[in-house]
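In this supplementary section we document a worked example of the pipeline. Step one takes a protein sequence of length 537 as its only input; no multiple sequence alignment statistics are reported here. Step two produces a three-dimensional model, which step three serialises into structure tokens for compact storage. The input and output of this example are shown verbatim.
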Amino acid sequence: MTVAEETEVTLAVGQQKDLPVAPDPAGRHTDPEMHAILEIGVRSQDRPGHPGAPVPGTGPALAEVLIVDTSRSMLHPADKLHAAKDATVAAVRMLPDGTAFAVLSGRFDATLVHPGAGSAVLAVAGPGEREAAERAVRILDADGGTAIGTWLDLARWLLKDHPAPVKHVLLLTDGRNEHDHRAPMSLDTALDACEGRFVCDAWGIGDDWDAELLLRITRRLHGRARAVRAESELTAAYEELVAGLLGTAVPELRIRLTPTPGTVIRQVKQVVPSEQELPPLPAGSGGRGAEYVTRAWGDEVRHFQVVLTADPAGRERGEDLQLAAVEIVVPDFGRPVRLPAPQPVLVRWTDNPLDASRQHPGVRRHELYQQAGAAVAGAYRAWLRGLDGRDTADRELARALALAAELGDAQLLGALRLIESAPGTGRVRTGLKDVDWQHLILSSALTTPPERPAATPPPPSPAGAAEGRAGARSADAAATPPDPPAPDGAGPSGSADPPLPVRPDGLIECPGCKWLGPADSVYCGGTCGRLLRGAPA
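The serialised model returned by step three reads:
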């Protein structure tokens, strides 16, 4: 990889293309839904020096705000506060020179611990600032209650005008936001104000934190919810998280969807490594397109589910038609990024009433995760009812175990077995604490992609080899993203049909609906959405 190709973004669209023209088996005539999975990856070449060091001329890469819960409960036991101080100091020590940062203390309200109360700007990391921050953290004491909305709002105020491409908040709490009603800003109001301003990771410590609260915060603020089982684990966890932040390859990545006329974008959400709704932003000409913002990418792969609806009336059957174009956009942040070519989301209208798009492995896998999460939640609610809910809790736990086994998710299976009385019983063990369920709820919110099968060479069979390979490809088509469009006018099958003629204005004309578009268009962006590469001139 050359210097100009230091970071590469990849895109694959996975889908089952068949959608029914006829009503579904229940007789409903609603527009059919096309479900597709976008697999987006980021790969970066290792850079010399500290992984978090900014490229010359780009300014600091990270602005970090560390929030420490200093409510009274952090003293019961005091090990929680000691661990929070140690972890915060360790995180500050890892910040490269020039990194903007602040440390906040959270109670009924939020206090700026460093660079000091009343400061309107973040501190800038260097030997002196790191030592001063450590001294301020070491003398923290705990008192008062918990009102997390005010903590997040102070972080927003500190970060709002900072130019760093990665703005991040690391929040630690042992409580349940029990004083939200007394706070000058509620959590809901704060989340509305903070969404899109920074990424927030939220951590639980102790025995009384609330998994749903952490998930509520992180799903709105594009972060991840985590917790430690023992206070002594927190420092290493913070160090791992900060190391990942300093290795951020792409601060912001946008998914741009441009539907063809008659197609409506119903939903876009992240489904791996966790579920997260993505609100749309207008994009493109004519108001048809939308962009969906994702943030803070390291070297990783994420999956996103796209749901589109379209009216099949007047559309050709049995032919691949484009419903939308998918494009990846990365705002300039001072480093070279190689982006993938746009990819189509396709449809093939059929007389089969089955909605095949929902059977794509990625879509099906996410539905199984949703069912597993619902089973965990149901088991927890039943457990809270004591003896009256015991049978229900057992049934829901057994259901969650079966779903985790079907998913092949070893992490989720391990978390469930910590709740099970004995392997294979499917029964909730006695003596559980509420925090045991909170850890399980966080575990059930994590998702993983299916493992890719190992590649095997084709069998050496001269006779019928072509048919065997074709059959194998047909069987694998549901699990394998489609090949990228063939260049230079070749059709998807590799045919060398001549491309459509290019007009003097640099455009080509669709022979079906007379849409005009760029000469390198693979599918029509007009009303018919038909294939253009390989189409007869």
